Amino acid sequence: MTTLATAPDTLTRDALTVLQPGFVGTTAPDWLLRRIGEGLSSVGLFGRNIVAPGQLAALTARLRAEREDVLVAIDEEGGDVTRLEVKEGSSFPGNYALGTVDDVELTRAVARELGRRLAECGVDLNWAPSADVNSNADNPVIGVRSFGADPGLVARHTVAYVDGLQSVGVAACTKHFPGHGDTNVDSHHALPRIDVDLDTLHARELAPFRAAIAAGTKAVMSAHILLSALDPDRPATLSPQILTGLLRRELGFEGLIVTDGMEMQAISSTYGIERGSVLAIAAGADAICVGGGLADEDTVLRLRDALVNAVRTGELPEERLADAAARVRALAAWTQAHRARGVSGPGAAQQEGTAPGTEVGLVAARRALKVTPGERAHEPLTTAPYVVSFTPVANFAVGDETPWGIAAELERLLPGTTTGSYGAEASVDAVLAAAGDRRVVAVVRDAHRHPWMSGALDALVAARPDTVVVEMGLNESAPRGALHIATHGAARVCGRAAAEAVTGR
Fold first, then answer.
1. Marked catalytic residue, from 176, 180, 188, 488
2. How far apart are CA 172 and CA 103, in angstroms?
3. 231 is annotated as an active-site residue
């Protein structure tokens, strides 16, 4: 049974301090404000909490009216994973596009502008960037969220991203330590494992994290993955060998260690979120991220009480919990000092397109395009086409709320453009019937991972050789069609850049 604290003691306040929970709604519920008053030091925001910059600024201001130094965190990677623009699609391409361009100054500029927008809205901790080396092209959850498959490239762009965010007072949280790239399982659904030797881990997975730590990343997020060479029994989030031994002692990281979402099945289905949270803090984590799926007061109280009880029974050393809470407060002090200095630029309600640097995302998306002409001559589209969207199931990190593709952008350039969405049961005959005599633009995402998609695309191109193909995931398949455009991500700006290439504008 949950114990309600009316006058929280130091132990209870420390337990609340290490939690980073979410909530439902676009205004702060009373229970959240009450717990902030009792010691809760962090709040996590998701797409469900955001409708507009002005609303977000008002929300964060209300949180800080309760406690001036509360940390407001968000999972805003840009690209496919956006919370600021969850209903429209991101104004910034993701990591894969930036890694494809391989201009660290561009990456730094994108991260700086993204960070500026976050800071203006009162958000000061970003659970980004992803520093995973995407060495497995079949990875179902990382993919275009990674800068690429080369450790050196990922390392230098991770550093640039950290620099860009932190230059405007938004703390970077480099993830998913010690590297989620070489997995073929999504940790939202099960526990992935990586079975490679220590030399490979140090040369590949750990290289970007080592660089991020040297660059001063304020936080690191752990991964719910099993690395048998480091700890054959517990996932990284719960492993003292990995969090304390490797990250703290060997790599020398002194900042905040944040867990990935504790309700993810890799943890919750085996340990439960209460037991998992106790083990994570004991292993060396400082902050418990929860709220993507469980976003209510009862969850906060359950985790608070699990930590308090673990200290009282001797399972969790009190000094470990106190140290974790102190690290949360230290990061809050850093962000508060930056807020006090202010963020340059227009106010939070400024409209997109008028603030300095807002076009940097589109510039990056255009530079990331790879356009490959087919054997058949391609003339830019001048009349409204039929857009065929072959749509895979979205992974949990991306979600299914955020639109993707190029139909909306083509409609803007060529009024009358229509679209159809097709899944694994796609019938090419149905596509051709819907298209009629219009030019066809086929949009795919990670076609190499979906045999049904590749098969449907091949059949479509065979029937209509003048088809334009736009790949918005990993560019692993051979180019096909009269024109093949690889965007290296599915952000809104990637769609806009592709539409410009299709129409020659």
1. 188
2. 20
3. no
